[in-house]
Amino acid sequence: MVYYIWLAVNGLLLIFSLLFIWVFRPYDSTTVLAGKLLAQLAILLFFINVNMYFIFLVIRKSKVRRVKVTLSKRARTMMKAHISLALAGASMILLHGIVMIWKLGATIGFIHPKMVTGYGSIGLLAITLFAGFLRHRKASRFRRKFHLITAMLFACLFLIHLFWSI
Ligand code: HEM
Ligand code: HEM
Questions:
Q1: Proximal ligand: closest to the CA of 113
Q2: What average pLDDT does the chain have?
Q3: 108 C-alpha to ligand 2 centroid (Å)
Q4: What does the alpha-carbon distance between residue 123 and residue 33 come to, in Å, rounded to a whole number?
Q5: Mutation test of ligand 2: which of 52, 76, 148 has the most ligand atoms closer than 8 Å to its C-beta?
Q6: 25 lines ligand 2 (CB under 6 A)
């Protein structure tokens, strides 16, 4: 049951973000368009990483052995890509931020909420990467919590940033 809700939420989020970005928000230049495309790709990678939490949650909570075994295998393969996905996404987002500051900063203002939520998201992303690195080096209760909480805060803020209209 939880599994279906989770799939539905993921699907809806994907569809809404695609619709919002490409249908309701017309673009003004090719560079800005490229910057948006980069951000769109990057958030797809971040979604996959954030979903690790829900996969681990289902593994922990499920009472069906078959589900546990299958999901554990899948989680193991997904974790192999976890760090690469995070670094690839972070590089794309860095470029996205640079393009937006360069192309739109002066037009919409550097303290527009869209920009400020963007700076905040980059900050939280940096902390999440650092926390992930700590956890990777040596896991402890605190480090587990730290990485999880920063990842979730990052996801919340970038969703606000995404859906904030200029
Ligand atoms: C320095 C940091 C950032 C700045 C200045 C910034 C700025 C912007 C601006 C101005 C737009 C609107 C583009 C348009 O209307 O054509 C935008 C869109 C977007 N940003 Fe950022 N951003 C930053 C960081 C981030 C981060 C960290 C993420 C995600 C992890 C992100 C994800 C997105 C997405 C998905 C869109 C497309 C949504 C839309 O078109 O409204 N951005 N960003
Ligand atoms: C975009 C950035 C990232 C996001 C959104 C993210 C998100 C997550 C989430 C949600 C989990 C599951 C946490 C749990 O259930 O306790 C996780 C686990 C983990 N992450 Fe990240 N992460 C990111 C980057 C990184 C980086 C850069 C590293 C390492 C250098 C890393 C290392 C780990 C490790 C070692 C685990 C534990 C896996 C396990 O328990 O088997 N993460 N991450």
A1: 1
A2: 92
A3: 34
A4: 23
A5: 52
A6: no
Average pLDDT over residues 59-75: 92
Q: Look up tokens 């670094």; give the residue.
A: 87
pLDDT per position as a tens digit, 150-165: 999 999 999 999 999 8
Q: Helix/strand/coil (H, E, C) string of the chain?
A: CHHHHHHHHHHHHHHHHHHHHHHHCCCCCHHHHHHHHHHHHHHHHHHHHHHHHHHHHHHHHCCCHHHHHHHHHHHHHHHHHHHHHHHHHHHHHHHHHHHHHHHHHHHHCCCCHHHHHHHHHHHHHHHHHHHHHHHHHCCCHHHHHHHHHHHHHHHHHHHHHHHCCC
Rounded to the nearest angstrom, the distance between the alpha carbon of 115 and the centre of ligand 2 is 26
The identity of residue 104, as a single letter, is L
Ligand 2 pocket residue status of 129, Cβ below 6 Å: yes
